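The freezer alarm interrupted the setup, so I double-checked each line after restarting. Inputs confirmed:
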Amino acid sequence: MDPSQLRFILEELRFSAMLPAEVLDQLAAASTIKQIPAGTVIFREGGTNDNLYLIRDGRLALEMSVPGRGAVRILTLGAGEMVGWSALLDEGKMTASAIAVEDSEVVVAEAEKLRQLCRANRDFGYHLMEQMAAALSKRLVATRLQLLDLFAASPTPVPDRTSESEA
Amino acid sequence: MSSSYVAPLPDPRLATDPWRASTVAIRAVRPEVEGVSTYDLAFQDEAVRASYRFAPGQFNMLYLPGAGEIAISISDDPRNTATCAHTIRVAGNVTRTLAGMKVGDTLGLRGPFGTSWPLAECIGRDVVLVTGGIGLAPIRPAICALLHQRRQFGRLNLLYGARSPDTLLYAREYDDWSERGLIVHTTVDRSALGWMGNVGVVTLLLERLRSFDPRNTVLFCCGPEVMMRFTVLTALNRGMSPEQIWISMERNMQCAVGLCGHCQLGPDFICKDGPVFRYDRIAPFLDVEGL
Ligand SMILES: Cc1cc2nc3c(=O)[nH]c(=O)nc-3n(C[C@H](O)[C@H](O)[C@H](O)COP(=O)(O)OP(=O)(O)OC[C@H]3O[C@@H](n4cnc5c(N)ncnc54)[C@H](O)[C@@H]3O)c2cc1C
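Predicted 3D structure, all chains:
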């Protein structure tokens, strides 16, 4: 796919929609588009991965292995969302496995190319990392809400502050 | 105006003496998910049954002699006049006592009380219903009303989050709702083997919602307060204004008629000024703890 088509696609994805025009051009030039059939493992927890993925269509799941419980699905991600940030920030050592739950279409950007672009062009780096931080911050808040277990069967009792202070 | 639901009823709160409890018998008990059942209650007095009406979002006070009285939202189709469904989760003393009762047993009912979902505001607009856990119960009558007059509204989306796949409430009804024009999106906080649906909090569904026109959408939200706070934040981030967002506050209450002050929230009483509030009215008080 030629870069102008890719740029058009990136313009419509939530992750990249806010990027300035020249950053979009550079990101498009460093990317390709790929179809991923349902069931495909894109990368494995603990393994390495060289790419950042932006989902255009379909759904991917992140899973972590827990001894005795096998692969636990912790999050599903859909169109406009980013997967594989460790490739960019952490030299590709993956913290979870990513699996296509449905036939999916993703924009694939080679992490090493992005790193080079970030180093060579601080403006590009700033804008890309800003989007990355925003996406990760949303994911962090969502994870906190998940942790709160808001729909647990019995409401968590309000702590007894009197006895706490006495203790 | 063609509808009895979007412009419902004379004020139902004025229809009956709010202090008078009517006797209702349990007609049926439907276990929904672990710890949650739906109780179909039938008025014993034929005249009360014939005159009883409620608007989606309102609640009743259920009185169990010897145990106490609790506020419970009405989860029925407002057109159903034979019985009145309440979906109840076992939380403590009164709800546990109710869970021990059987078909034919009787209890007291006062109501309906409170404000309702603003269905008239939704005519010609898209509606997004965001709910979690048992919060789907007070939304269900609104779903019935919206689907009954489906053509009056734009896109209808239900975004529903539950703890796990086996705790998704009213799952048997989703196909019917979908066929009738409600787009049902579900997600769970904890996945289970074989679950192919979404995993993650319900606010993510709002974040992802496609074909979303923030200026022409009305959002109803009901669930734990933290969930509602983050839902509102997401909705505002996506370009909605506070006047388009309605939430149902279900903090503890006692008298249900704005006298005892138990459920006071700023200048409002949840029981008589709520439980359904427009967000801009309640926003300053949402963080008040410990009511
Ligand atoms: C307007 C309104 C509508 C409601 N609709 C429904 C409904 O449709 N279905 C349903 O199952 N419940 C509903 N509730 C909550 C219900 O009223 C309480 O669960 C019930 O009063 C608990 O009584 P109990 O004696 O069994 O438990 P209690 O012994 O009174 O409480 C047990 C535990 O539940 C907590 N709790 C009690 N009430 C609430 C509350 N309102 N919110 C959060 N935690 C609470 C207490 O802090 C305690 O930890 C509604 C509440 C309101 C105010």
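Quick read of the result. The mean pLDDT of chain B is 89.
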